Amino acid sequence: MYVAAEGVEHHPLVPIWQELVVGSIAFALLCFVLMKFVMPRMEAMYQARVDAIEGGLKRAEAAQAEANQLLEQYRAQLAEVRTEAARIRDDARADAESIRTEILAKAREESDRIIAAGRESLAVERQTIVRELRAEVGGLAVDLASRIVGESLADEARRKGTVERFLTDLESAGAR
Amino acid sequence: MSGQLVAAEGLPWPPSVGDFYPPDLAGPWVTKFTLMVWLAVGILIIFFMASYRNPKLVPSKGQWYAESIYGLVRDNIAREQMGKDGIRFAPYFTVLFCFIAVTNLFGVTPGLQISPNSHIAFPIVLAAITYVMYLYIGVRKQGLGRYLKQSLIIPGVPWPMHFLLIPIEFLQNFINRPVTLAVRLFANMFAGHLILLVFTVGGFVMLASDNIFIQATSIFSFLMAILMAFFEVLVALLQAYVFVTLTANYIGTSLADGH
After folding, report:
1. Assuming Cys at both sites, which of A95, B42, B201, B248 could form a disulfide with B81, CB separation 3.0 to 4.6 Å?
2. Is residue A6 part of a domain?
3. Which chain A residue has its CA at the smallest distance from B55's CA?
4. What is the pTM of this model?
5. ipTM given for this complex
6. Residue B55 and residue A39: Cβ atoms within 8 Å?
7. Across the interface, which of B22, B48, B71 has its CB nearest the CB of A38?
């Protein structure tokens, strides 16, 4: 009653048509500007961020998987290398053993051969010596007998001297 | 008592509907209310353009605020009410939410002190857009016949019941929804302003009293006004949220198949 005197008393549920127009235009302008220039970029940024996070997670997962695969591969390779090394070691051991036995066998064979050769040459020498001795002893016996027969047998002293001489001759012959 | 007090002080007591219609500044087109609406539009355009002029994946503070509002509307309203389909409506819902929130908050902004939404014209505009939107989407998605059938006929009731149910459903879906949407927002802002007027102006009226006890009581009136101002902030944001949520819900039912 005191203030409303200035204007027409409005029923609050009856809209002022100018305000309907202004509200429509203003809100339409707001919608146009924001939905054309701001909101699409905001949604794009939203998606980009989701992508960045999810993509990062995916990349991390992929990297993890790759690392696991590599690790597995290295483990497999390592195991392979280990068995290989063990095999080489075993081979080497076996080789060394066989070489040793081979060398031993060869040495034994060689020594046997040398011993046999020595024995043979000894036997040959002996036979040669025996043959020579037999011839010489025969000769000597004949020589001695002829000397004994050729000398006067009366003189024992001389007989003694003859034998003595013979033996000396023998000795000098042996010393020669 | 109050009548004589006001007569002495010249204060507008008791608060009346007339308080919502201050004199025009320059004809019916340029009033406090139309200027406030333009102000809200300006504030929002400047805020969003400034904060999103150069968006980055790692946001600046302004960009983060803008995105938080968008994220709230997109995930908590659009997706909550409409599922995956709702996301393409999120830009409009965000604009709607921001516009209602800012104009509502004018009700507790010093110097403005009243929300444009306490004039029913503005809620009517917003509710009409929602109304047209959900009707159009419903008809386009399902065809006029199927959309009407889905909106009006509840399946699985005995056929004589339809004489009763179809008018009720019609009233509910095609009249009550837009009217309540507009009136709810308008009434909240109207009542909020009235409450603040009662406690603030009432405080001054009591202070102007000759009686010392009445003057002392005015302190409670002012305290109450401050409390109600905070309450109005809550109401302002809540009503924006409710308006957008219901809009999303209505459009969601238009998109949905079956009743």
Report:
1. B248
2. no
3. A45
4. 0.71
5. 0.88
6. no
7. B48
